[in-house]
Amino acid sequence: MNNKLIKFLNITGLTWFIPMVKIASGENPAQQLRQLWLMMGVPFIAFLLFLGLWSFSAARVNTSLGAIPGPVAVWQEAGGLMDEHHAQRQKERQYYERQEARIKQAQAEHPDQPPPKARPYNGKGTYLDQIGTSLATVFTGFFLATLVAVPVGLLCGMSPTINTAINPLIQIFKPVSPLAWLPIVTLVVSAVYVTTDDSWFEKSFLTSAITVTLCSLWPTLINTAVGVSSIDKDLVNVGKVLRLNWSTQIKKIILPSAVPYIFTGMRLSLGVGWMVLIAAEMLAQNPGLGKFVWDEFQNGSSNSLGRIMVAVFTIGIIGFILDRIMQSLQKVFSFGR
């Protein structure tokens, strides 16, 4: 049971708790406590030192918006953003309650007429709403990038000719900044995609998602190609001896062998996509975290710096969680490597 729990903690990245499990199972307590100190105590002390240095130096740096906020001020701003979220949700509930009451009253007064049309709440999006928008945008871009990168990477890895043909394009477009892609994507989306009241996506959402796709597909493509080209030649020869068709070779030999490389590329792609997203949302005005940072910078109020710092920590924490999720998936699909 303990071995299964330790394996689960290793896969999920929750290795901090492994010493506790080993202590509970009766292993050397002194050694496990030392491991626990190294894994949890040392980082905790380092984080406290970081907070102390931040608090000491923040008040000594003055900007046009005032002094740099310290940890306490940033925490208060985070609480203020949560209070705004709850207040906005309360307004939304009251709006729908009033609308439902009006519809019932209209039906009671004029039963022979169709009921009034229900209208969605169009209040201001909260900070949590903006986090949700950013996550939806980055996963859309990441999904599109994976759909393109994995098949092209398989072709590049299986065919040296195709790899030679595509490699120059990869080397040219891989280092291109999202700030260079964004104007092109904006013009193309504006020309091709016409929005109506029933449209599923806003132009700003598509612009940001496609920009993420163009910047994040390269790690998955390159790692997939490397994984396929690194497959043991004996496995490929076995497939030829058994006269397996092309699709069977991909499903039974190539993909299972290349999956660890593919997930490594996907992990890198998701990290790149999350970094690219913030700049894309700033310029495309997609209502996510990037737009939140830009709006607070333009606002220039006394609490803008604190709110921007909240967004910085939010971006970092979410990026860390996304990387942990992809790392766990990578371990699951690495077949014990």
Could you characterize the architecture of this molecule?
By secondary structure, this protein is mostly helical. Helices cover 78% and strands 1% of the residues.
How many beta-strand elements? Answer: 2
The general outline is globular
N-to-C series of helices and strands: HHHEEHHHHHHHHH
SS field, number of helical segments: 12
Helical residue percent band:
over 70%
Give a short synopsis of this structure:
Helix content is about 80%, strand content about 0%.
Helix/strand layout:
Elements: H1 2-12, H2 18-24, H3 29-58, E1 62-63, E2 66-67, H4 71-109, H5 127-158, H6 160-173, H7 178-192, H8 203-229, H9 233-241, H10 246-284, H11 289-299, H12 304-332
Antiparallel strand pairs: 1-2
Helix pairs in contact: 2-3, 4-12, 5-6, 5-8, 5-10, 5-11, 7-8, 7-10, 8-10, 10-11, 10-12, 11-12
Which terms would index this structure?
single chain, 337 residues, mainly alpha, two-stranded antiparallel sheet, 2 strands, globular
